[in-house]
Write a structure and sequence with these properties.
The protein is mainly β and about 270 residues long. It has one domain. About 5% of the residues lie in helices and about 25% in strands. Strand 14 and strand 15 form a beta hairpin. The termini are far apart.
Length: about 270
């Protein structure tokens, strides 16, 4: 794949995926998305990325990782019977469905074929800039709203960080990243979120601030099961309503023909 060059100024230590010149860290980002139709008329989409971002990062451990997979694109679903577990009656059921970092689904059910490194199978989605999404961490807690105060290395201003105790150096987002706006970091110095007053005070508001110019139904990535990921705003420019989003953060189009995932701005609790 061809690559695009990105750099971060005033970074005393570069990460393994980049090259240092003075205090400037420079790296090559690769991203390729291709589609095809197989012999059965099914549309396939293949995502290939080295997972390096198009913005500065706080971590000095980030490395290029070969994420490469193909999946059935936007598979047809029937409203009310998608085949996913969308209804839970206890908090424990919900936790078992969404908290494990390694999922128990059958890749073949979604037409997923893995071509990349071992970590490729653990990615839950890919942002439009080629960086992967994860949600729970290795101890099944939410890194954005941790129960244990120091459960993992902190998130940076893009709400991403490097995977803990990993030889791969996998950088990933744990929330809808404000840095999907390529101009978000202009005039800002990259730090950890906890070291920035605005980010630390209200991390949800901080995430939403990156979408001030994208207050519409905007594609931000692709989920591993082939469904599209949209940002925090719906067709009318309003934040998604909790009443129409299922526990998997999935929603339906108004005509109930298209199922997709959305970014949300609330902490979901199930009352038993």
């Amino acid at each position: 794949m061809t690559s695009t060059t990105h750099q971060c100024e005033n970074k005393p230590k570069c990460f393994p995926g980049g090259k240092k010149s003075g205090t400037t860290c420079t790296w090559q980002r690769k991203l390729c998305v291709t589609c095809r139709t197989d012999n059965n008329g099914i549309t396939k989409i293949r995502v290939q990325t080295n997972n390096l971002p198009n913005h500065c990062v706080q971590s000095v451990l980030v490395n290029a990782v070969n994420f490469d997979y193909e999946v059935n694109f936007n598979p047809n679903q029937s409203y009310g019977s998608t085949g996913y577990k969308h209804t839970f009656t206890t908090q424990n059921q919900l936790n078992k469905a969404v908290c494990p970092i390694v999922k128990g689904y059958k890749a073949s059910d979604f037409g997923i074929v893995e071509y990349g490194d071992a970590e490729s199978a653990n990615a839950l989605g890919t942002a439009i800039n080629g960086v992967v999404f994860q949600f729970a961490n290795q101890i099944q807690e939410d890194p954005v709203y941790p129960i244990t105060e120091a459960n993992e290395q902190p998130l940076d201003l893009c709400l991403g960080h490097n995977q803990q105790n990993s030889d791969f150096g996998m950088y990933h987002y744990h929330d809808i990243s404000p840095c999907l706006d390529p101009n978000f970091l202009n005039g800002k110095t990259m730090t950890n979120c906890v070291d920035n007053d605005a980010c630390k005070k209200d991390i949800t508001k901080w995430a939403l601030s990156g979408f001030s110019s994208m207050k519409s139904k905007t594609v931000i990535g692709l989920a591993k099961d082939g469904h599209v990921l949209y940002g925090p705003y719906d067709d009318s420019g309003k934040l998604w309503n909790a009443k129409i989003v299922d526990p998997c953060n999935g929603a339906w189009s108004k005509d109930q023909t298209d199922y997709f995932y959305v970014g949300t701005s609330w902490v979901r609790n199930i009352k038993i």
